[in-house]
């Protein structure tokens, strides 16, 4: 393209301490075009974006806006130049309302007072843009992660940006919500907004991208058209091809003993009368639309939330409602959908985060076995290929996908035999996904059992031995691996559940 780019990162580099994470990379953002950044977890994508957003300053190289060198010493400076950013980790204030979050920093006032009506109206307009139907007065902290992501998107769209940067905006979205977002992206493209887009869903790249910059270990390795076939993109990004996407095989051969029994579990407003069994060696998938009650159900089983009625039994022992410690002691591990708020202590080290569930149980005569814990943490970090420079670095400084692996790793170390996985591969790159699937297989082969909630239907279908479909807080049906097709699941997930017999 001969046209002047809106934004250029010119030969930028960035190091944290002794570790260089971006090295001599050039990216252009053109008006009316979507520049995709592609790379494995930890390749440097978010770091590049943060240099566009004024969060990080490059150690070397320059930032150009309209061809002129600029300094972006802080986020405000970037916003002033018309650069709006949706970061991978959400930046919302949970205790404030949806409207206050959307309009943050731009709260309308009238005679020196907050103009509530105007605030609500402007927020409403921003939400309508992406078809998000939530109460503008709702507390953001009470929304699920998908809706929070949409609020974040609405917030960025409501400022008149010339450059819109989207770091994995679709990771927590369903297909329909993604389509809404892409519709808006198409409108912005037509209006000449320049965009940067990151996603580990390769099919989305051809759908909305124009060009793809492929990064490996902080280096730009290729720049190709977004129409490049997916397997070629994978090869460029991981340096090899990945042939088997869902390595589950045909499921458990022998009937294992029952390890988890859920009977008549109900929680007002979330789910009702849920019963199922899971056997050793089994992966039970739970499918359904956002809002079907899947996350709430997993949280109740894990002891994270209380419930109103019903029982949870692990290996014959009934768990006390709302008691995480008892669940962990019974061998239950929970990978929550919101790793930032519920899964990790961000300022603690990788080592400590991996060890949380085990430190007490591996103590001998009251003495915590720090050396042993460290050895196990290093081993699991290696197995999961958590990309880090030091096991003592804070989890906050890991890339998003590597944080996800750390949540998983904790339960591997703890030797949990019943794993409740809520969107286990969200934000995880294509290669690491297969590694997580292999780990699921290893856990079930070793006698463990898995309950997996996922909005990625191919993942549910590819990795489950049995699929429960939830709709509106109830079980709408159960499908064997053989019966579970995309159509069968969607029919159950969207059909009205027959009303209970009077
Ligand atoms: N503040 C920091 N201190 C130390 N290391 C950091 C910091 N921020 C990022 N890193 C490191 O920089 C590397 C690149 O991280 P980045 O977040 O850019 O990856 P990414 O490509 O966005 O990955 P993902 O797909 O997982 O989001 C990682 O190895 C990460 O641990
Ligand atoms: Mg990232």
From TrEMBL:
The keyword Hydrolase does not apply. The keyword Translocase applies. It is a peripheral membrane protein. GO terms for cellular component: plasma membrane. Residues 7-242, 254-497 form the ABC transporter domain. Its main location: membrane. InterPro entries: AAA+_ATPase (IPR003593), ABC_carbohydrate_import_ATPase (IPR050107), ABC_transporter-like_ATP-bd (IPR003439), ABC_transporter-like_CS (IPR017871), P-loop_NTPase (IPR027417). Gene3D superfamilies: P-loop containing nucleotide triphosphate hydrolases. Keywords: ATP-binding, Cell membrane, Membrane, Nucleotide-binding, Repeat, Translocase, Transport. GO terms for molecular function: ATP binding; ATP hydrolysis activity. It is found in: Cell membrane. PROSITE patterns: ABC_TRANSPORTER_1 (PS00211), ABC_TRANSPORTER_2 (PS50893). PANTHER family: CARBOHYDRATE TRANSPORT ATP-BINDING PROTEIN MG119-RELATED (PTHR43790), GALACTOFURANOSE TRANSPORTER ATP-BINDING PROTEIN YTFR (PTHR43790:SF9). This is Sugar ABC transporter ATP-binding protein. It comes from Goekera deserti.
């Amino acid at each position: 393209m001969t046209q002047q780019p809106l934004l250029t990162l010119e030969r930028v580099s960035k190091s944290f301490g002794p570790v260089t994470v971006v090295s001599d990379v050039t990216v252009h953002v053109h008006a009316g075009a979507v520049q995709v950044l592609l790379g494995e977890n930890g390749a440097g994508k978010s770091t590049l974006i943060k240099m566009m957003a004024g969060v990080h300053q490059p150690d070397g190289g320059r930032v150009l806006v309209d061809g002129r060198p600029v300094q972006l010493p802080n986020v405000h400076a970037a916003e002033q130049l018309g650069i709006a950013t949706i970061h991978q980790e959400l930046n919302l204030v949970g205790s404030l309302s949806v409207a206050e979050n959307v309009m943050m920093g731009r709260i309308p006032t009238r005679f020196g007072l907050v103009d509530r009506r105007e605030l609500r109206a402007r927020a409403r307009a921003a939400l309508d843009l992406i078809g998000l139907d939530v109460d503008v007065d709702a507390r953001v902290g009470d929304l699920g992660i998908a809706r929070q992501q949409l609020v974040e998107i609405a917030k960025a769209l409501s400022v008149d940006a010339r450059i819109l940067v989207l770091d994995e905006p679709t990771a927590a979205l369903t297909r329909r919500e993604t389509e809404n977002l892409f519709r808006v992206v198409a409108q912005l493209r037509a209006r000449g907004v320049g965009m940067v887009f990151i996603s580990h869903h390769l099919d989305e790249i051809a759908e909305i991208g124009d060009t793809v910059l492929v990064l490996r270990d902080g280096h730009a390795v290729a720049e190709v058209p977004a129409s490049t076939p997916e397997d070629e993109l994978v090869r460029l990004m991981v340096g090899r091809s990945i042939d088997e996407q869902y390595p589950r095989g045909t499921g458990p051969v022998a009937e294992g003993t029952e390890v988890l029994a859920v009977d008549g579990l109900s929680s007002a407003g979330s789910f009702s009368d849920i019963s199922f069994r899971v056997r050793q060696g089994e992966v039970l998938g739970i499918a359904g639309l956002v809002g079907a009650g899947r996350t709430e159900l997993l949280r109740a089983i894990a002891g994270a939330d209380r419930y109103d009625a019903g029982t949870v039994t692990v290996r014959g022992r009934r768990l006390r409602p709302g008691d995480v410690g008892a669940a962990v002691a019974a061998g239950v591990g929970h990978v929550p959908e919101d790793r930032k708020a519920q899964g990790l202590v961000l300022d603690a080290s990788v080592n400590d985060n991996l060890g949380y569930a085990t430190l007490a149980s591996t103590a001998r005569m009251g003495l915590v076995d720090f050396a042993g814990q460290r050895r196990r943490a290093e081993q699991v970090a290696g197995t999961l290929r958590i990309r880090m420079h030091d096991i003592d670095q804070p989890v906050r400084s890991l890339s998003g996908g590597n944080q996800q692996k750390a949540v998983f790793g904790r339960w591997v170390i703890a030797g949990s035999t019943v794993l409740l996985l809520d969107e286990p591969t969200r934000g995880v790159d294509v290669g690491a996904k297969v590694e997580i699937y292999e780990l699921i297989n290893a856990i079930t082969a070793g006698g463990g059992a898995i309950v997996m909630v996922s909005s990625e239907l191919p993942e549910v279908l590819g990795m489950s031995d049995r699929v429960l479909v939830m709709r509106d807080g109830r079980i709408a049906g159960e499908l064997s691996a053989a019966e579970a097709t995309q159509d069968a699941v969607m029919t159950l997930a969207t059909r009205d559940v027959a009303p209970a017999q009077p």
